[in-house]
Predict the structure of Nucleolar pre-ribosomal-associated protein 2.
Amino acid sequence: MGGDYKTGEATLIRAVRALDQGDVETIPERLERVWDTLSEYHGGSFHAAEEMLLRWLLKNMTGTTANAERVRRYALTWDILGAVFALVPLFSLAKSLADRRFINILQQTLKEIAKPAKEDAAQTNGTTSEDVEMANAPGQLESPSNPRKRKRTSSSVGFNVVAQRKIEGCLQTAEAVFEALRVLLSRCEVKSLEGLPTHRMGAEHVKSLFSFSATEAMEILVPVLTLCGLAVDKPTAGLFKEQSSWLSTFNAIWELHLQGSDDATEVATHLSHPGARLLGKLTGVPQQVSVGIESATQERWVRDLRRFLNRNLILPARAAFLNKDSQGIIKTAVSMCSVSAPICFPVLFDLVTRSPREFGGNTSIKGYESWVQSVFDAMLHAASVEQAIDSKKGMAAIRSIMELAAARNAALTAPSLRKVCKEYALRADGDDWSLLLSIVKLNPDVFLLSDEGKELLNKILEKTRNTESLSEGDSEKAGHFIVLLADGYAQARDLTSFVKTWLEYLVPADPKAGLQSLWAQKELADTVSSLLQSSLNANQLADLVSWLSAQPATAARTYILGSISSGISQEEFIDAANMSSFKGVFAEKVSKKDPPSLSACRWEIAAKTLGKGTLEEAIEVWTQVGSDLKKTLKKSPIQQEDTFAAFKCCVATWLANHPGAKHEEEAAKLVCSFLERLGKSSDAMEVDSDKPTGAITNKTYLSWILSDSPLLFSMIVERTGELPEPIVSLLKPNEAEDITSFDPETLQTEHNFNTAKLIPTLIDTIIPLVDTSKSARLNPSTKAAVQFLLESAEALDRRQRGAVMKSLMMHLPQTSDKAEAIGMDFWKPVLSLMVKLMEEPTYYEGMDFSHLEAIGRCLLKIHRRSNRRSRGDLVSDDVPKDRENFRLLHQLAIRTVKQMVHGKLEDREKAYMSNAVQVLKSQSEDADIVLRIILLRAFRTAVREPGVVKKLEEAGLDAKDLKDNALLQTAVSTITSGKWRGKGLLSGVIALEALNDLDRAAVKEGLASAVPTLLETSNSLIENGVEAGWDVRIFLANHFPDSLGSPFKVKMSLGTVNSEEDNNSSTEAVGNSALRQYVDAVVKNTDEKTKLNYLQDVLLDQYDAQDALGRLVVIDQLVSHLRGSRPSEATANFDLAKAHSILCKSLPDTLSPSASAPANFLVATETIRSLLDQSPMCMTQWNIELTLSTVSIISNTSPSTTSPPILPALCSLIEAIIKRHRQRLDGHFHLLITALQSLLRLLLTSSSLSPIVWESHAKTYSRLLTLICEPTVASVSRAKTTGLDSEKNRARRYAGQYMYFVLMQYIKLQLTECASSSSLPHGVREALEKGIYSIVRITTEDSLKIMNESMDPSGRVVFKELYKRFQMFAQWKGV
């Protein structure tokens, strides 16, 4: 080894000395030789050559000459510098860098490459754009194993200064510069400073090179941000090494500068504009744009840049404002950003509103709001200046800021919002409803508390009168504006004023026209209804209704009273406004000239009054409206909306008078007579596509009766003893279009099923809907009826079961040729219904064994049709989908035959069984062999009970041969025929399944010669991704296990798991796959050692990527069969502890982009959890620590957008350790803390998840914390106890010494990750705090003091608020 070092040193020395030989044009060749030498050189005892190389490079990079610029821009120069930085001792390195003014060279280089030439500026020296682009070819990236072992391609740019000055050349140089700086600064980190004191001294000397003032630092930092912006602006993502660390290097350089009081001002002056502009592009503020970097890089840049701007601009500016009332910093930043106001202003405002609060209590809230307001005012002033120069830029900036403020619910003052309204929203060239909507969202008081605001509101509301002048989008926003305005009035406790305004603008300008559409929207009426009882007291509501009743009788007044009537539900409000609303509407006599909409509104108010009032009030209402109601229901067209409303009012009268009140009989007769009229109308089954949505049809009446008034349904049946004719008519299909108008789910209500008289009548009505023709057409009515009967099968009596079976059997076509008209999706519910019906004694007229044959032939015909879709040698894998229907047929045949042989054999039973025996003994065609096997198997199962065969013989029926021999011969001949492709695949699989029921010895004898063929067939099917191949192997494993040899040396691809929802639920498909059944069959009769050998083979065997998921499933299933024992002391022996280690080490690979399925990680995690939970004695201390470190690594390296979400699976591993291995954490608790902190970071950065899923993950994590802080007795119990102290209390005290670190991490992440991305949703925070409170509960006062001292002021404020909530809601205060 020493000789190699000396040889490498000598080669490097020669290469370095050769640098001075030759002219400038040969520098690239000489540097290439140096680079090649460095690629194989790993350092030696002396570093003179490296220092000489460093000084030569820095010397040739110094100066303003063209050659010096070419060397500075040459990427290989900086690559060599990065390699030298890693080799030279820090003390010597610092001296050389200082002597050769490295910082000046760095500044000059960054300044040059941050200003690329335009692309059309040069095509010289034969260098084309294609040549430049080849520098980043994918095949020329560095090897990850050795960063210096790569072939440089900079010659494509080379010393051609024109190519170097282009964007691609500048970015290549930037890549090399940033990598060199990263290597240099990483060597100065504390963690890497081991060894001699001179190393630490050298690190400090290197750091001192960057210890310049903030002003001088800008000469490096500004170009860095500019280069990042150039990379983002590229049309496609560039393949740059370590690009994600560029901004981390940027932050590291800033951290080394000499801190001063004017740092924030310098950042505001120089970095606020490029930083905000870059952050806007990265985060899509104000709108999404394409970026030229990878998503992982984008995510990290956003995090780094937000953290920098927060810490060095936003928080210092806020501190200056709150402590010194100074706005200089933020005004400087706003002034610098005004050049790109539409992008930079929203970004700055976003940072301001995301920043965490610094002080607690009410002062903090007030100060925070003042700070946000000052920033908004500064941006508003700057935008007004821009507005004068470029109106579009100023308008776009304000619109984006207001939308962001509305989304964040920022507390902005009314005067500033009023200014926005006057100057930007209400313009001469058009109104901006987006801005108006944002203003009313933020602070409705803008329009309510001052005369100026009310004047603005009047201008805005006047514009709502003329809806034709508004575009569709503006009309929608205007409607939403009015709804929010109503909510604002309610918050101001002045809802009465809004109702009066509502009445004013709801009245149309033209009396003949309808109500104003924006003011008549349903959302507004519903909003006012919901606000009534919370915004007004009973007296105020009574006064409001009284005022409305005194107004002229208009449609608008009726509409508003209807909204009020809908919104009262509490008793005091009902007493105050229920009858008064009714009297206000019906004070004047109903006119025939009133439009239907007005009459409908009146009837709805009357119906609500009846539903909420007393019996006396119901009588009063009926007395007043009864005569008009009768006229309407007898004469008005059924399709009018007022007729429908009148019908509902009449039903309400019946319900109000039920049972036995004065007007019950009168109302009931009126309802029943109207239903008769409804049944006789020509619209009984009208399904008119030309009718507008919401038009009143007979189906509207039926849907309302079934869904909104189920009590009426049962009352009608109880009164008449039968279903109303219109309902029967609506259930019947349309003869012309074959469409039924009912949804089965509307009938399957709990109330209907609990009505004893209703359900039999309903079933009798539904049964005839099943088509009994031989047309083989699948009527929608038949499908709907079958679905209803399937859900209601338990309620059918014997007569009804027979009627349904008869109808279903009559529906069968006479020949299987007609079966193509019926799809396989029809047969599954039909067969399921038949199986359910035949579970109880059922007989139908004409019942015959041939019916089962007819069903089977239909299924076979459909299967053959789907099988024809395969082309050439491709194997069609429709077998699993069709097999389910054949299994249902098998179950149906068993139940049917069992019924026939269960009791005494009468004439009909003898006839049925005679036909069955005759059919099964007859010769079967090859095409129907599947059907014959299914029926033979079912017959054998049904007559297997003792005495059944003898009973058949006494009846003159010989069924002995059908019991075993016939099935065995038929199945064996089918399997040995060798037809395993196309049409023969299903028959082979069905035959194998049937043989599992027969004697094993007979089966082995019959198929001994076919085993090699079956093994070859299974391998072929599995290679083609056909699941039936596993069925063949399962059969071989059960009957011929020796034939398999190495049973798991087979392709295990699960890429075509047959599940109708395999795209959405791959884990379910994996869990139910035939591969698991195969594993069960293989290990069924093996010992523990053999199972362990199988597991070892599968774990250590090489496999294809597409087999990864199948391999993991096999491992998981094998682990479930292993009981395990204590770990072996011999290192050569394989045991479950080693299996756990292998799985843990490979777990991160399951999340790589090359993973074949998202279920890989979940299956692997579940296997590891099973080992920890089910085999605790097999695990060693190493396994526990390895699991914890693996969880930490995955949590820290996996992005929060990983699919599937990994946090619940990782939490399950920690939970298993806590429950089963808690005692092994003694002395190793710090590993658990690290894992918990990593999981917490992953949880709090999962903002891309939906709120429901995010909250579920928070609950899972919180459960972990409570398990640690409040342990169960089982998890901490020991074989021997010491003293009187309980183990549970001891475990709590021990955890209390460490768990406060998790609490500190929670506070820190709220100030960094959550502040830089988005605030935690309320549900997530609430779920987390249950676990956080358990930490506070076990932490001692001394630990709390230590934690408090360890945090910065912002952290202490957050903890103070958290502890205050803990004392209020989570601390026990019992006696």
